[in-house]
Amino acid sequence: MQSIDTVLADGPTAPGDTGGSALIITCVHQGFELYGSDRCFIETVRALRAAHPAARIDVILPRHGPIVPVLEPFASRVVIEPLWILRRKGLARRLTIDLPALPIAVLRAFRRIRASDIVYINTTVVADYLLAARLLPRRSIVHVHEIPEGAVLTILRGLIRWSGADVVFNSHATARAYALPARTGARVVYNGIAGPLAINRGDYDGSRPLRVLMLGRISRIKGQDVLIEAVAALPEAQRQRIELRIVGSAFEDEARERALAERIAAAGLAERVRLEPFVADPAALYRWADVVTMPSQRPESLGRVAIEAMAYGVPPLVTAVGGLPEVVEHGRTGWIVPSGSPEPITRALAALIADPAAWRGYGRAARARYEARFSEASAAEGIDAAVRATLRRSRLRGPPALSVG
Questions:
Q1: How many other CB atoms sit within 10 Å of the CB of residue 142?
Q2: Residues of the chain with CATH 3.40.50.2000
Q3: Predicted confidence (pLDDT) per residue in 214-236, tens digit
Q4: What b/e string do you get for 340-362 counting C-beta neighbours within 10 Å, with b at 16 or more?
Q5: CA–CA separation, 44 vs 30, rounded Å?
């Protein structure tokens, strides 16, 4: 175990007594980069620090990465230690060859939970902590940010039910996908995002190419391939009036990145489409964009990139999957098109290029919707309410209550 940061707030070595001693909060995260779920985790830790300034907040990560220096101002300690993470890639090996190491991981998680007043587990794939949570009831919260499918969904739903942890879903779509029993302590809290003070001017009038941004991890779920096909299907005159930037990288999969670059070249789009590596701070990208697109082909639990775009006053073009329709109001703050093929995206892009005046007010409406539903303050209030409710139940040792909405 390697400690990365120094202790910012001293706390007790045993949980439960907060009347004069610091609350001990442990926050566990499966990532180490600065993608959407990582930034959500950072915002949660920051919110917990603001709500509990005297608490000892220990952050547990599986690896050192760019997330660490961003967390350090809010965490008492950032600790790197092995986590039993169920990723889609390598899942079969994890559940077979690697299985004998699971008891040690669960024991390590059990000790962490036992030494904490409350444990916040970010995402359902941190299996060791969810298994250990069952042994110390009413002390853990799992924050669900993903909508898996098939066998993976069955496994993760089973883990949540086994854990007995209270549950925070990031959208109603996510809650519906897991379909947990009514007795589960669960609530929906939309992800909150710190937006810029000033929004973009929204000055696209057709006199220059339409600037379209796609930001996110490269994968079949996110739909980069479908977006390329959609742009390639535009008539030549309209292809010349669009600039597309696809920004992101594939998780430990350089072959997928090369394949996407080859697809762009094969479609004859090398002059219209730029494939760029992941950036830690996407602010300049949102300032550049006229439209941000999420052409997702599998369920998105919510759609952080769409929310970030709205914070900048940039209308999003998204597919009708998962929680994305909860973010965008079609025909007012952006556009929602069917998934499954490139044609709806092609038609939407063609319409945007042809008639800029028709959507000139969308940016301001998008910013207003962000402020009303997806602000950082709103999410912080929801997360802290969940933490306080779990703490109350822990002290009362009463049954969990249901509050979805």
A1: 25
A2: 2-192+375-396, 210-373
A3: 999 999 889 999 999 999 999 99
A4: eebebbbebbbebbeebeebeeb
A5: 14
